[in-house]
Every structure is written in C-alpha cells, then in structure tokens.
Design a protein that fits this description.
By secondary structure, the chain is an all-beta fold. It has one domain. It is built from no helices and three strands. A three-stranded antiparallel beta sheet has the order 1-2-3, with no helix packed on it. The radius of gyration is 14 Å and the shape is globular. The two termini are about 25 Å apart.
Length: about 60
C-alpha cells in the first residue's frame, strides 16, 4: 500500500478549524486564519504547511 503524501497546507486537515467573521446580512465570511486542535490549540493560517500530525479531512456526504 503506497504511503499517502502529506498535502501542502493545513486547510485540508481534519484538525484545522477555520475562523469566520459575520458580515452584513448575517453572512459568515471565512478568514485566512484558524487554529489546530491536535493536541492543543495552535494558531494557523490557511496556507501553513501541513505538519506530521496531519490527518485527512473526511469527505462530506454528497461529494463525489
């Protein structure tokens, strides 16, 4: 079984939680910032290189 390659950024990790801000009309707009929840909170940016703790984010139902 081939080893999975770690992606280029944290945004593809299941431990990355992206931050949002509420704009006019109660819409939520994603920020370029977030945090990692494994094993403790660490500030991250969307384009931060993935680390050794990376775990692939599960695909949402309905995604092909």
């Amino acid at each position: 079984m081939p080893e999975e390659k770690i992606p280029a950024s944290c945004v593809q990790c299941k431990y990355f939680h992206q931050h949002f801000v509420r704009s006019a009309g109660n819409r939520f707009v994603p920020l370029e910032q977030g945090h990692c929840g494994n094993p403790r909170l660490r500030d991250k940016r969307v384009n931060t290189p993935a680390c050794s703790r990376f775990a692939k984010r599960p695909e949402k139902k309905g995604d092909a």
